[in-house]
Amino acid sequence: MSPYRNEHVAISRPVAGSAGHTGAWRVFKPVVNRENCNGCGICALYCPDAVIGEDLVIDLAFCKGCGICANECPKKAIAMVREEK
């Protein structure tokens, strides 16, 4: 067993705060094209709000629409689409 293996890694997950869900003021939302996605998980790695799960589903209740996931996707499988109100 590796001395560096830690089975209890702390992972931050978004939760509703006193202001509610933080995705409510988003202008653009990420939309994943599953046909182009190769499942590499780079989008989740770079997401500053940790709203992309292991199954690469984006939690839009907390996504702020920053577009980092779309920018970092090597397959360009994520498009930033204007929110419809």
Oligomeric status: single chain
What coarse outline follows from CA principal-axis ratios? globular
Number of domains: 1
Distance between the termini: 52 Å
Strand content is 5-15%
Strand order of the largest sheet: 1-2
Keywords:
12% strand, 2 helices, 85 residues, two-stranded antiparallel sheet, 2 strands, little secondary structure, Alpha-Beta Plaits
Task: Explain what this protein looks like in three dimensions.
The protein is mostly loops and 85 residues long. The protein has a single domain, classed as 2-Layer Sandwich (Alpha-Beta Plaits), CATH 3.30.70. The chain has helices at 42-46, 68-72, and strands at residues 28-32, 78-82. The protein starts with 27 loop residues before the first strand and ends with a strand.
Which helices and strands, and how do they pair?
Elements: E1 28-32, H1 42-46, H2 68-72, E2 78-82
Short description:
Keywords: 4Fe-4S, Electron transport, Iron, Iron-sulfur, Metal-binding, Pyruvate, Repeat, Transport. The protein has one domain: Alpha-Beta Plaits, CATH 3.30.70.20. Helix content is 12%, strand content 12%.
